[in-house]
Inverse folding.
């Protein structure tokens, strides 16, 4: 991959769906994963194995993972299909289904940690460490998330040193990459610049960082561009801007994958993703779930395509 290229981590099937109250069939979830894979995305987070009381929408995670088509996808050595797990119970289930990568998640802040995983930051790090150690024994790759990098819904603004502490702990336990989660979507490019600069100055390698920006204030794509200018090359996003967490009230979806691919395509930055297929997938999932498509690029591309081609779908 050229030094200027980016890897997009599609979190639609997990972050995108986890906060939707209406039932979504397992077949729709599996079809979403398959369609996303056909766009060229090289990393797709498949689901989460968490308490079904915490996240009822993903309580069919084992059905998603047991399907032959999802098993076949995971056999591709050139792609990553992480599954979010909060504890050893989640990891043990992932092992049973032959999952090759898991994602562990900790919060930089106490309030969100309690609400999200029912323990302190320190206990959350310890749990993640147990998962990472056992995963290593099974040859399973581990990705890490730090949530609430700029603010916590219960505690207010986050100290950068708290993000540093969590990121160091995740890398120290063997995560190959740490995704910086702006869970509330309150980040702006200047905040991104300050935090990323601070982390790098404190010896966190930029090539082990990823950006995970929720788009509450419409800053998601700008935040990604700013982080890209700081040298970051991995970004999480969700098709049609789906996303949110039941324990982060008021936060909007992830930055839309379509918007990132549109932005990077126009900058000559390689993503490996076919934008028209992606727009088609975003249109399909929005229609299937009867939800407004939050991608701004999608609207324009879809409109232009219909105007000039006279057909309905790109
Ligand atoms: P707890 O209640 O303290 O744990 O929850 P527990 O061990 O007492 O278990 C409670 C029940 O859950 C038990 O079932 C367990 O068996 C079951 P019961 O006996 O009551 O029937 N359980 C599980 N079931 C399936 N899979 C598991 C599992 N573990 C326990 N792995 C716990 C603690 C961590 C389990 C819970 O709080 C939880 O599952 N939290 C997950 C919440 C979540 O998924 N949040 C969204 C993802 S994080 C996010 O969105 C942020 C991110 O996108 C980045 C960003 O935006 O910043 C990543
Ligand atoms: Mg998120």
């Amino acid at each position: 991959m050229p030094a200027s290229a980016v890897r997009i981590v599609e979190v639609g099937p997990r972050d995108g769906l986890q906060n939707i109250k209406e039932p979504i069939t397992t077949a729709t979830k599996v079809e979403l994963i398959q369609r996303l894979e056909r766009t060229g995305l090289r990393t797709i987070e498949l689901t989460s194995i968490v308490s079904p009381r915490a996240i009822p929408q993903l309580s069919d995670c084992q059905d998603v993972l047991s399907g032959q088509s999802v098993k076949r996808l995971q056999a591709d050595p050139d792609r990553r299909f992480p599954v979010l797990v909060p504890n050893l119970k989640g990891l043990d289930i992932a092992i049973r289904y032959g999952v090759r990568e898991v994602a562990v998640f900790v919060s930089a802040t106490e309030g969100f940690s309690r609400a999200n995983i029912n323990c302190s930051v320190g206990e959350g790090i310890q749990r993640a460490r147990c998962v990472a150690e056992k995963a290593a024994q099974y040859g399973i790759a581990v990705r890490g998330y730090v949530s609430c990098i700029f603010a916590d819904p219960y505690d207010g603004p986050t100290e950068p040193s708290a993000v540093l502490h969590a990121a160091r702990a995740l890398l120290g336990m063997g995560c190959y990459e740490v995704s910086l989660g702006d869970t509330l979507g309150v980040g702006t490019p200047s905040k991104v610049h300050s935090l990323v600069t601070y982390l790098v100055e404190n010896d966190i390698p930029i090539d082990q960082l990823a950006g995970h920006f929720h788009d509450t204030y419409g800053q998601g794509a700008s935040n990604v561009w700013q982080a890209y200018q700081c040298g970051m090359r991995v970004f999480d996003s969700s098709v049609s801007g789906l996303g949110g967490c039941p324990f982060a009230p008021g936060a909007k979806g992830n930055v839309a994958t379509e918007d990132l691919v549109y932005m990077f395509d126009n900058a000559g930055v390689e993503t490996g993703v076919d934008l028209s297929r992606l727009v088609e997938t975003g249109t399909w999932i929005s229609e299937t779930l009867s939800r407004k498509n939050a991608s701004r690029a999608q609207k324009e591309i879809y409109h232009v395509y219909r105007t000039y081609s006279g057909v309905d779908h790109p």
